[in-house]
Specification:
By secondary structure, this protein is an all-alpha fold. It is 69% helix and 0% strand. It is built from 6 helices and no strands. 17% of the residues are buried.
Length: 175
């Protein structure tokens, strides 16, 4: 076999090797992307569970729960409670925006983002949170695309987990 034939065969083998490598890398990337999305979805729910656990032990948990009562206004709470409620609201809005970024990057699935988006829309339409949202959405920490996404979502009624959206103070956990 001449050198030219050997070079031609080597080029063909190298071409197949490159093709096999590209196919393998494509399969690995798909698998990694699927794993990343699954982990991100699970992490989003684990983070919300952590928030709920924290709130269940928060000294202002009764006041926070009452913020879902449509008949209440922010002025009905003490200054300390108002500060806690405002900081909690900002934290929640920032968490939702973080999920928006993950969704926009393609690592949070559509269904998980839509569930969170609709819940956030319900939150920002609850009277007390609407007042806070109207103040917060203009802050330079929220991007216009996120604000638009939340404000264009369907609105559902949300609560702090209690059927009526309120806690019975006598039934709350002991501090």
């Amino acid at each position: 076999m001449g050198l030219e034939n050997f070079v031609s065969i080597a080029e063909i083998v190298a071409g197949f090797a490159v093709l096999v490598t590209l196919i393998f890398l494509t399969l690995e990337l798909r698998s990694s992307a699927k794993t990343l999305r699954a982990n991100t979805n699970a992490e989003s729910y684990e983070n919300w569970a952590t928030v709920n656990e924290f709130l269940s032990q928060h000294s202002d948990r009764v006041a926070i729960s009452q913020t879902f009562d449509p008949s209440k206004t922010l002025s009905e709470f003490t200054e300390v409670e108002q500060a806690a409620i405002r900081l909690l609201a900002r934290s929640l809005f920032q968490r939702f925006q973080s999920l928006y970024f993950k969704y926009s990057a393609g690592i949070l699935t559509e269904d998980v983002w839509q569930q969170n988006r609709v819940w956030c829309s319900g939150l920002v339409n609850a009277p007390i949170y609407k007042a806070i949202w109207d103040d917060e959405k203009g802050q330079p920490i929220f991007i216009p695309e996120f604000v638009l996404s939340i404000e264009s979502a369907p609105v559902v009624k949300v609560s702090a987990g209690a059927a009526s959206g309120q806690f019975d103070e006598s039934a709350s956990l002991q501090e």
